[in-house]
Design brief:
Largest sheet: 5 strands, parallel
CATH superfamily: Dihydrofolate Reductase, subunit A
Radius of gyration: 14 Å
CATH architecture: 3-Layer(aba) Sandwich
Shape: globular
Strand order of the largest sheet: 4-3-5-1-6
Structural class: alpha/beta
CATH class: Alpha Beta
Number of strands: 7
Order of helices and strands: EEHEHEHEHEE
Strand content: 25-35%
Bound molecules: NADP nicotinamide-adenine-dinucleotide phosphate
Length: 127
Amino acid sequence: MMDVRLIAAVGRRGQIGLAGRLPWHEPEDLAWFRAQTLGHVVVMGWRTARIVGNLANRIVVPWLGEDDPAKFLARTAHRFPGRVIWIAGGAKTYRAFMPHVRRAVITLVDYDGPADVWMPPLWEGAR
Ligand SMILES: NC(=O)c1ccc[n+]([C@@H]2O[C@H](COP(=O)([O-])OP(=O)(O)OC[C@H]3O[C@@H](n4cnc5c(N)ncnc54)[C@H](OP(=O)(O)O)[C@@H]3O)[C@@H](O)[C@H]2O)c1
């Protein structure tokens, strides 16, 4: 049984990204992200993975956008049995994997500034 979870930090109007990065500086949320994902698999889209790079004590598996999400997940779960598969963004990646997500961990950031990437609705296409 795959344990697929989504983790995101979202501004008050749904903002998640600005100029390829997070729109805010929130060390506390980065520590939360680290605590949640330690020892597990972290799936990131191409754009996010390029900036974030490797994460200590996590298995980062970039999603290149070409693989079918269901097949990608089945393969990843087979390679890393017993680990949670965390879907860690960005927007395109959240949207693609949403139908397979069973749990979502969202930080609501008290941020009202600009963004160029937005959180897709969690319930669209979800089981
Ligand atoms: N707040 C949060 O919790 C959080 C979490 C993660 C990321 N983010 C932010 O979200 C933003 C990134 O999200 P995103 O939806 O733009 O991207 P993404 O989901 O990280 O990556 C997918 C994007 O990569 C592009 N891509 C894939 N392969 C490529 C290649 N070979 N060459 C060039 N482009 C390629 C795709 O472009 P096409 O669509 O054109 O194919 C697609 O838009 C960043 O600002 C990041 O900081 C926020």
